[in-house]
C-alpha cells in the first residue's frame, strides 16, 4: 500500500471517529436540555410556602423576595414551554423541507430525524404540566 493510500485511510478513520464523537456530544446536549427543562418545571412545585417568622414579626412568605422568586420560577417554566414548542416547529419545518428536496435513499434518515424532533418537542412541552400536576398533590 502506498503512503498516500495509508494517509487517506487514516484520515477516513479519524473522520469517522469525529462523526461518532459529534453524534454523542449532540445527543448528550439534547438530554441535558430535556432534563434541565424538566427540572425548571418542578421548581415551582417544590417551592412550598414556609411559615417562618421574621425579626419584625412578618412572615417570610409575604416578602417580595419570596413572592418574586416564585413568580420568576413559574414564568420561566412558561417561557421554556413556549421556546420548546417554537424550536420544535422550526426544526421540524427545516427537516421537512430537507425531506422534500432529498433523494429516495436519504428520505428514511430525514423521516427519523423529523419524528425524533417532534416526539422530543411533545415530551418537553407536555411533561412540565404533567409533573406539576403530579407533584402538586405532595405539597
How would you characterize the overall build of this protein?
- The chain has 139 residues and is mostly helical.
- The protein has one domain (3-138).
- It is built from 3 helices and no strands.
- It has helices at residues 3-46, 64-101, 104-135.
- Helix 1 packs parallel to helix 3.
- It is elongated, with a radius of gyration of 24 Å.
- The model has no long low-confidence stretch (mean pLDDT 75).
Write the layout of secondary structure elements.
Blueprint: H1 3-46, H2 64-101, H3 104-135
The number of distinct β-strands equals 0
Structural class: mainly alpha
Q: End-to-end distance, in Å?
A: 71 Å
Please tell me the total number of domains.
Answer: 1
Mean pLDDT: 75
As a whole number of angstroms, the C-alpha radius of gyration is 24 Å
- Approximately how much helix is present in the residues? over 70%
Shape: elongated
Report the order of strands and helices: HHH
> What are the segments in which pLDDT stays under 50 over at least 5 consecutive residues?
none
Taking the sheet with the most strands, its summary is:
none
Tally of helical segments: 3
Provide the β-strand percentage band: under 5%
List keywords for this structure.
82% helix, elongated, 139 residues, 0% strand, mainly alpha
Brief characterization of the structure:
By secondary structure, this protein is mainly α.
Amino acid at each position: 500500500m502506498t503512503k498516500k493510500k495509508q494517509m487517506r485511510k487514516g484520515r477516513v478513520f479519524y473522520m469517522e471517529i469525529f462523526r461518532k464523537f459529534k453524534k454523542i456530544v449532540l445527543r448528550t446536549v439534547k438530554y441535558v436540555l430535556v432534563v434541565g427543562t424538566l427540572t425548571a418545571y418542578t421548581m415551582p412545585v417544590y417551592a412550598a410556602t414556609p411559615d417562618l417568622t421574621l425579626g419584625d414579626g412578618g412572615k417570610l412568605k409575604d416578602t417580595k423576595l419570596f413572592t418574586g422568586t416564585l413568580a420568576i420560577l413559574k414564568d420561566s417554566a412558561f417561557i421554556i414551554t413556549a421556546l420548546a414548542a417554537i424550536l420544535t416547529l422550526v426544526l421540524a419545518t427545516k427537516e421537512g423541507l430537507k425531506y422534500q428536496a432529498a433523494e429516495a435513499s436519504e428520505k428514511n434518515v430525514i423521516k427519523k430525524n423529523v419524528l425524533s424532533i417532534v416526539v422530543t418537542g411533545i415530551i418537553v412541552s407536555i411533561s412540565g404540566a404533567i409533573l406539576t400536576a403530579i407533584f402538586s398533590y405532595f405539597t
